[in-house]
Amino acid sequence: MPTVQDLARLLEAAAPLAYQESYDNAGLQCGDPHAEITGVLITLDCTPAVVAEAVRRGCNVVVAHHPVIFRPLKRLTGANEVEQTIISALKNDVAIYAAHTNLDNVRGGVNDKLAEKLGLLKTRVLAPQTGTLARLITYVPNRPEDQQADVAGRVLAALYAAGAGQVGQYSDCSFRTEGTGTFTPGNGAQPAIGAQNQAETVAELRLEVLLPLHRQAAVLRALRASHPYEEVAYELIKLENTHQEIGAGLVGELPEALTPSAFRQRLKRQLLVPVVRHTAFEKPIKTVAICGGAGAFLIGAARAAGADAYVTGDVKYHEFFGAEGQLMLCDVGHFESEQFTGEVFRDLLTAGFERTFAVLIAETPTNPVQYDC
User: Fold this and answer.
1) Exposed end of the chain (fewer CB within 10 Å): N or C?
2) Which superkingdom is the protein from (predicted)?
3) 3-class DSSP assignment, residue 179
4) b vs e for 226-264, b when ≥16 Cβ sit within 10 Å of the residue's Cβ?
């Protein structure tokens, strides 16, 4: 039977914890990582009522978007809802796992689901992250006459399998340059080429691949395991390049331009929202930027991307002025912009595990905001 730890590995392969924001607390919130899963209940927020529903429906894991432990807990006395949730989960042997901004910042996550609901096409990341990539350079013998021909191919295949060589939608990406390497094995060496205390000159290939920094340890293990040399020479250089597939928000195109009024009706219909707070705007809406949750920090990025509308939640009064008449800023609500995240979790879990346990969407309402329309 799969365990809670298996579930964590699966979700973190899709949304690595390395991609969460510095203030966040994604990951396993409480529970035994080695416990076998009897069922998974999916929710946007985990509350005592959600834990009770999990117990009632035979689920010993709750997967939530928002971490229940967001700030450090100094005590567990049940003095507030967060403490009550953790106490109830511990008493009932229910593990709680959260994938928050790491799921916001990856393709196939929160914003792709929102884009799907709105029918956006040709989407791209609105604010790509920097500092998440590195370049690995290594050197392998270039001796096609050997029985171990295509050493470069074997090393590269191992690096690709470990997570290197991905550039956007292209995989198995590398660069190679021919050159000459020199070395003299010492007394204790066991060289793959040459002999102890004899200077050696070898035709070599310089191999270069990109890798996400969170895969660094795995890629270096693969390099050492696949490389023929006893001592593997390599360089690992952190890059400041933006990662075009990792970052906050998305921007895309509607199938056809809509009037501002028709676009707002589309928001209400597709996102099941009773009201949309918005700025005045009279031009047709074609290019749309989105960010599930609290996305006011991306208003400037949406303007810079040439968006006609920006859809998000939690916009404060003064932040609406940030539209500067250049786009229609639409606040549909925090919960409303993320309410379909459960579908993301469900699809990942049902595709990643055999049907040995139920994956259920919580029925307990957790939106603290009510509308009187």
Assistant:
1) C
2) Bacteria
3) strand
4) bbebeebeeeeeeeeebbebbbbbbbbebeeebebeebb
Q: How far is CA 48 from CA 29, 77, 89, 256, in A?
A: 14, 14, 8, 44
Enumerate the β-bridge partners of residue 361. Answer: 42
Cα separation, 136 vs 234, in Å, equals 7
Strands 133-141 and 121-130 come out as: unpaired
User: For 113-155, how does the pLDDT look when each residue is reduced to its tens digit (9 = 90+)?
Assistant: 999 999 999 999 999 999 999 999 999 999 766 555 689 999 9
Question: For residue 4, how many other CB atoms are within 10 A of its CB?
Answer: 21
Alpha-carbon distance of 261 to 278, in angstroms, equals: 11
Exposed/middle/buried for residue 199 (C-beta within 10 Å: 0-12, 13-18, 19+): exposed
Nearest one of 303, 244, 290, 271 to 107, comparing CA atoms:
244
296: its two tokens: 């006011």
Dist. CA 100–CA 103, nearest whole Å: 5
Chain mean pLDDT for the chain: 95
What strands, in cross-sheet order, belong to the sheet with 277-278? 121-130, 242-258, 285-294, 309-313, 328-331, 277-278
- Radius of gyration, alpha carbons of the chain: 25
Phi first, then psi, for residue 179 (nearest 5°) are -165, -165
Half-sphere exposure of 109 (CA within 13 A, CB side): 30
Structure tokens at 270: 């597709």
Neighbours of 210 (CB within 10 A): 18
Q: Which two tokens stand for residue 168?
A: 């956007």
CA atoms within 13 A on the CB side of 256: 1
Report the distance separating Cα 289 and Cα 254, nearest Å. Answer: 11
In the sheet that holds 234-239, the strands lie side by side as 175-183, 200-212, 133-141, 234-239
pLDDT, one tens digit per residue, over 270-296 is: 999 999 999 999 999 999 999 999 999
Binned at pLDDT 50, 70 and 90, residue 297 comes out as very high
pLDDT at residue 367 tops 90: yes
- Listed in sequence order, the residues at least 6 apart from 109 whose beta carbon sits closer than 8 Å to its beta carbon are 14, 15, 103, 344
